[in-house]
Amino acid sequence: QVQLVESGGGLVQPGGSLRLSCAASARIVNFDYMYWYRQAPGKQREWVATISNIGITVYADSVKGRFTISRDNDKNMMYLQMNSLKPEDTAVYSCKAGALSWGQGTQVTVSS
Predict the structure, then answer these.
(1) Which of 39, 9, 40 is nearest to 108 (CA)?
(2) pLDDT tens per residue, range 61-75
């Protein structure tokens, strides 16, 4: 099972941007699909975006047009570029590889 570590979270003002990274301990080329999820305080975990091994992407309606998921199979990294951030984007963001491997998450807070 691959180990995943997220980074790049923090405090940002509404309208700002952040880039999250997900570093894998093993080759991610073996994972057909990788994902970003988020969990806001008091809410259930929510799917954010998916990327396939060949770069096909799918987004939740709530982030479509603002977030971009990407992966670098050579570096065993996945990314989430988040633009035009809103207070409702505040959550712990976690990456997932395949069906079983989760990172511990990174906090994103959008507030003025």
Answers:
(1) 9
(2) 999 999 999 999 999
